[in-house]
Specification:
Blueprint lengths: L1 E2 L7 H5 L8 E4 L2 E4 L5 H18 L5 E5 L3 E3 L2 E3 L3 E5 L21 E5 L6 H13 L4 E6 L4 E5 L6 E3 L19 H6 L4
Parallel strand pairs: 8-9
Antiparallel strand pairs: 1-3, 2-3, 4-7, 5-6, 7-8, 9-10, 10-11
Length: 187
């Protein structure tokens, strides 16, 4: 985790800064640059976004976005995957998907990188849940484990290969086991 600046900024000041690669987030007045995605992280993200969209997009139930800046609750975060129910996707005056998303995702998914703080990522998921997110996943490729977070519920841990991963109700047709998720690493 790289902290880009020690000076405390306002959220408005942060939103006027130039974009960084990898993305920077605004948390508690500080700009924190996300770590550069590595192979396992990138592969899971690249497979999971279309797998979710294959189920939810044709029926206009929801849509998954990779690396989307979401600004809400005095934070600006960039989940690895942010899934929004179709009716909540911000639109511009032309009806196109807006550039600015000032709401929490309905489902937030984070994929842990080797040099990333699990505590920081968990705090972002909990922040999302506090602001209306239905479910959060924290995928740990090294441990082949998925932590599932829901508002005001105990965290669930999925590490048994045949365990079916829970999804929000709008994505109920997505059937994915722990084994299937991590099998992408072998392809």
């Amino acid at each position: 985790m790289v902290q880009a600046a020690s000076n405390i900024l306002t959220l408005e000041e942060f939103l006027h800064l130039p974009e960084t690669k990898p993305a920077s987030e605004y948390i508690d007045g500080h700009v924190i640059q996300k770590p550069m995605p590595q192979g396992k992280h990138s592969l899971i993200q690249g497979e999971l976004v279309p797998a979710i969209n294959l189920v939810v997009k044709p029926k206009r139930l929801a849509r998954a976005f990779p690396e989307l800046c979401c600004t809400f609750g005095d934070r600006s975060i960039v989940p690895d995957i942010a899934v929004f129910v179709w009716s909540r996707i911000p639109r511009d005056e032309n009806g196109e998907v807006a550039n600015a998303f000032s709401i929490s995702p309905d489902w937030t998914i984070e994929i842990l990188s080797p040099d990333q703080s699990q505590t920081k990522v968990t705090k972002n998921i909990l922040h999302c849940l506090k602001h209306g997110t239905q479910m959060g996943w924290l995928i740990d490729p090294e441990e082949q484990t998925v932590f599932v977070y829901r508002p005001k519920q105990e965290t669930e841990v999925f590490d048994e290969p045949d365990a079916l991963l829970p999804v929000p109700s709008f994505a109920s047709e997505l059937k994915l086991t722990v084994k299937e998720l991590f099998a992408w690493l072998l392809e």
